[in-house]
Amino acid sequence: DQQVKQNSPSLSVQEGRISILNCDYTNSMFDYFLWYKKYPAEGPTFLISISSIKDKNEDGRFTVFLNKSAKHLSLHIVPSQPGDSAVYFCAARDLYGNNRLAFGKGNQVVVIP
Amino acid sequence: NAGVTQTPKFQVLKTGQSMTLQCAQDMNHNSMYWYRQDPGMGLRLIYYSASEGTTDKGEVPNGYNVSRLNKREFSLRLESAAPSQTSVYFCASSEGDGRGQPQHFGDGTRLSIL
Description:
The complex is a heterodimer. Chain A is mainly beta. Chain A is built from no helices and eleven strands. Chain A has strands at about 5, 10-15, 20-25, 30-40, 45-50, 55-60, 60-65, 70-75, 85-95, 100-105, 105-110. In chain A, a hairpin with a 4-residue loop joins strand 7 (about 60-65) and strand 8. By secondary structure, chain B is mostly beta strands. Chain B starts with a strand and ends with a strand. The interface between A and B is medium-sized, with 26 and 29 residues.
């Protein structure tokens, strides 16, 4: 049973506009959430994270929002750039899981110049 | 700037053959991980090692064995390859006991079992 779910497998957005990626989770013991970006033929690259004690974390063009009561997080990319075209994975860590991560299936983002 | 290095990058095996996927990290990380990624799926944890000398099963360990050779190296072995093990394999590492630190990934090994 998948504990981290990413719906809407693909997203197309115009350059300069906002990209919003959503992620839902089921395990209430998750305490740390991460977003990874992946280009073809490369490994995932860490993008941004958020602890469960926060509801927002910002790093440049990337902002992650966490709604614990809804077990939902989102990644906002503003403004979107062509280099942001990639697959984005949401991941979550179990407080008692020795830093094991559960990953969603990923969202393909295409930024149109 | 090596980070996490995986070898080989590509491999084709016949059913029943064995092979070892190699992984080495130069970031002095304690924790290391092996994942597989299948089409349309997220990454699934096969095995992990929280520290040198320890290994534990992840979500999909059947058909695999691992060795934490030293702090730098963590290998994944397929004793008798099966077509269901066709996948992209990623190795990752993280600092300390891994708490609060992101995992850093290699570029993957693309494995096909015929």
